[in-house]
Amino acid sequence: MPNLRDIQHRVVTAFQRRVGNPLLSTLPGQTLLETTGRVSGQPRTTPIGGRRVGREFWLVSEFGERSQYVRNIKADNRVRLRLHGRWHTGTAHLLPEDDPRARLAALPRANSAAVRLVGTDLLTVRIDLDD
């Protein structure tokens, strides 16, 4: 029998996949993460929130290693990131030793609140930007 975290994960990801992500992806100012699909090899784009600090971009995945984009990063950590309408290439690093709740305090407030509200397995991700 599924536990509450499994049900929450299914409900939130179904909403994100069918409603939230398609809508957010069309907004010109939305930050987008492009990974390579681990099975298909095709580009997969996900709207994300986070903050650029110098040549790094920091975010927290609400479902950790259950997130599809995190699973794609584990297979191939070369990514593209659209910031303010401009695409950047970089290398993503999963940081399970980082405190994701403390990290959220340093990231944009609205996105951090949403991640805290729906997240079940928080995981910090750092993207080292090439440019």
Radius of gyration: 14 Å
Report the CATH superfamily: Electron Transport, Fmn-binding Protein, Chain A
Task: Give me the secondary-structure category.
Answer: alpha+beta
CATH level 3 topology: Pnp Oxidase, Chain A
Question: Can you offer a commentary on this structure?
Answer:
- The chain is α+β, with helices and mostly antiparallel strands and 131 residues long.
- It has one domain (28-129): Roll (Pnp Oxidase, Chain A).
- Helices cover 35% and strands 32% of the residues.
- The chain has four helices and seven strands; from the N terminus they run H-E-E-E-E-H-E-E-H-H-E.
- It has a seven-stranded antiparallel beta sheet with strand order 2-1-5-6-7-4-3.
- The protein is globular and about 45 Å long.
Summarize the structure.
The protein has 131 residues and is an alpha+beta fold.
Main features:
32% strand; F420H2_quin_Rdtase; alpha+beta; globular; Split_barrel_FMN-bd; Nitroreductase family deazaflavin-dependent oxidoreductase; 7-stranded antiparallel beta sheet; Pnp Oxidase, Chain A; oxidoreductase activity; 131 residues; 4 helices
Q: What is the secondary structure topology, with strand pairs?
A:
Layout: H1 4-25, E1 32-36, E2 43-47, E3 51-53, E4 56-61, H2 68-75, E5 78-83, E6 86-95, H3 100-105, H4 109-118, E7 123-129
